[in-house]
Amino acid sequence: MSANIKDVAKNAGVSPSTVSRAYRFPDKVKPATLETILAVAEELGYSPNHAAQSLITGRRMTIGLLIPDIENPFFASIVKGVERITKQRDYQVLLVDTSEDPGEELHAARQLASQVDGLLLCGTRLQTDEIRSVDARTPVVLVNREADGVPSRLIDDHGGSMQAVRHVHALGHRSVAYLAGPERSVASAERARGVAEFAAANGMAACVLGPFDPTFDGGGDAADDVIAAGATAVIAHNDVMAIGLVQRLGLYGISVPGAISVVGFDDIPVAQMTSPPLTTVRIAGVELGEDSARALFERLDGAAAEQEHAVLRTRLVVRGSTGPAIPAP
């Protein structure tokens, strides 16, 4: 016969409610007690019954995570961070790829609202009133999007893009182009704003090109516009676009960074493996996922969040895709 919660409690010298708390709210159990309970549970081969827990707690023990593009490696790091936290709480994650489609995202969010205890909307393309309509159905935490009354975990997109343009300015570049991502992407708009503000304050010519698909092909499609714009430095909405741009420029015989410097955004794992290795603005995706999941569980537990809209800092990582500007003849 398989072990049950009472067997674990008896062998661990605690009450069944403490065993339940160890799985549902491990942060509320003393570390030594938690270690003992988990060790006994493993020895007895005990695993909690999700169906029974749902009946007792009224919870489904599942959260939903909506991401705009499952093919972009950056979102994989967020998923990893979310799952680290949900595993500690013995929760499952329902993952949905919305394919950068706001209509599909809204439909999925409304469908999931009745099936999960809460939702994480990552890089959402929804309008503010749509976000609130979903939040009225189930608790929501936004990942890199801000809306009044809805908790969020944000990236310093504006500051990150200013780091990028400051870098190419220091290398002597006086003309910069920003490759915009999806039209409804708030992150893309903030990154464009950072480029424009630094450029205006420092005598640089700046332009925004796009919007383009935030994909490898989208970056390649931007190459003709980059060449026509005459910019000597380019900051792309994300790394995948930047890599696509570098590849297409190479096909045209245009050297990176010899003729054009390119900066990405995210620091996905492949960024350091490209030729040349990509200079990029690093975002700690795993940390962002962890913080976002914690914020959602705070809502589910009825705890007051320390910060409703916490901001994750970014850091420029300089590699081989940026270099000194070629002096004008």
Describe, in plain words, how this protein is organized in 3D.
The protein is of the alpha/beta class. The chain has 3 domains: 5-48, lambda repressor-like DNA-binding domains (434 Repressor (Amino-terminal Domain)), CATH 1.10.260; 57-155 and 284-312, Rossmann fold; 157-283, 3-Layer(aba) Sandwich (Rossmann fold). The chain is 44% helix and 17% strand. It has 13 helices and 12 strands. Helix 1 crosses helix 2 (16-24), helix 1 packs across helix 3 (31-44) and helix 8 (157-170) runs parallel beside helix 9 (186-201). The radius of gyration is 23 Å and the shape is elongated.
Please sum up the structure shown:
The protein has 329 residues and is of the alpha/beta class. Helices cover 44% and strands 17% of the residues.
Lay out the secondary structure:
Blueprint: H1 5-12, H2 16-24, H3 31-44, H4 50-57, E1 62-67, H5 73-88, E2 92-97, H6 102-112, E3 119-122, H7 128-135, E4 140-143, E5 152-155, H8 157-170, E6 175-179, H9 186-201, E7 205-209, H10 216-221, H11 223-229, E8 233-236, H12 239-251, E9 261-266, E10 279-282, H13 285-300, E11 309-312, E12 315-317
Parallel strand pairs: 1-2, 1-3, 3-4, 4-5, 5-11, 6-7, 6-8, 8-9, 9-10
Antiparallel strand pairs: 10-12
Helix pairs in contact: 1-2, 1-3, 5-13, 8-9
